[in-house]
Design goal:
This is Curlin. This protein is of the alpha/beta class. The chain has one helix and eleven strands, in the order H-E-E-E-E-E-E-E-E-E-E-E. About 15% of the residues lie in helices and about 70% in strands.
């Protein structure tokens, strides 16, 4: 009886792990420098968060609720802050910040929205909010 239980438990674990990647959410964080922070939350399936930070005191937060959402943040410099908030299906958000003291917030509530931005220099602020489906927004700033 115990032998059968152990075999059944092992088989269930193997099958469970084999099925996991097909619907799993993923997070990738790569940080260099000092005092950088990254965090967030995911509910649903097939959501992806990627964060790359190189510098000092940069912060990235991503929230995803739904499925097939993608959020990418890349920051190089000092004291940059990036937030992405996604609810729905198939949304894509990307933030690239170079320099220092930038703030960017991208909010998507719906399906199939795309938001992207780049900020270069010093002290840029950007906020994009998308509701509904199929919206596309992009910004590029070169603040002094």
């Amino acid at each position: 009886m115990t032998r059968n239980f152990i075999i059944a438990t092992a088989a269930a674990a193997v099958l469970g792990f084999a099925a996991l990647p097909a619907s799993a959410n993923s997070v990738s964080i790569e940080q260099y420098g000092f005092g950088n922070a990254a965090g967030g939350a995911q509910t649903g399936f097939d959501n992806q968060i990627g964060v790359f930070q190189d510098g000092v005191w940069n912060e990235a937060i991503s929230q995803q609720h739904g499925s097939n959402n993608v959020s990418a943040t890349g920051q190089h410099g000092f004291n940059n802050r990036a937030d992405t908030w996604q609810a729905g299906h198939g949304n894509a958000a990307g933030i690239g910040q170079f320099g220092d003291n930038h703030n960017a917030v991208l909010t998507q509530d719906g399906n199939g929205n795309v938001a992207a931005g780049v900020q270069v220099g010093h002290g840029c602020d950007a906020e994009v909010s998308q509701t509904g489906g199929g919206n596309v927004a992009a910004f590029v700033q070169t603040c002094p």
